[in-house]
Structures are given as C-alpha cells and as structure tokens.
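User: Structure please.
Assistant: Input sequence and predicted structure:
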Amino acid sequence: MPDRQDDQRGQDEQQGERRARLARAQRELLTALVAAGPHPDGFDPERLRVQAAGLIAKRRSLVARSAPHLVARLGPRFTGLFAEYAGARPKPPGGSRADALAFAAWLGVPPEAPRPGRLARLLRRRSG
C-alpha cells in the first residue's frame, strides 16, 4: 500500500512536469512575439502578429528617445528599418540604450550622435 511519502513524491513529480510544460509554452510564446519565432499551437496567428507589431512599436519609441540622432539621420526610413531589425532579433540585455547601440551597429552607422555642426553637414550631404 502506498504511503504518504509516495503520494507526495508523485504529486511533486506531476507539479514539476506541469511547470516544465508551462515554461516551454511561455518560451514558445515569447519567441513568437519578440524573435519572429513560429506561432505556438493554440494561438491565433493574427493576434500574435498584432501583439508582436505593438511590442516592436514600443521598442522603436524607446530607441528613438534614447538615440534621437538615429531618427534624425534616417528620417522616414527609421520606422521601416527598425521594424526589419527588431523583427528578427529580441531586445538585447541592457535596455533601450543597448538596443539603440545594436540597431546602429546593424545599420553600420556610428552609435553616438555627431557633434551639432557635423550632424547638419551629414544631413545636408544626404539630402543632396
């Protein structure tokens, strides 16, 4: 006859299995939302797409605040380029500043804002 210890061990194992399944499902969902991963079973792909786009927009606004020189430099191309960058990679550790630095590296542009006079010259050169 099983004793209380055996019952407890069985319950602990079941709880561990449930936690492992939940952790796996959370990883799959997070990967789908922030790293262009496959859609996990049981989730509406359109809703996942909308949520992922919202998270990218939030990231974009935080990067724009921490690196306004990138927005100025890229102009209307900033939104599309950031979506391309962020859609294929999760936010790096270190917050929005680290994200801005990684975005600048991905673009191949200097990560820091140029001196005020230099920024004006760069913008004039780019406009023609």
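The radius of gyration is 22 Å.
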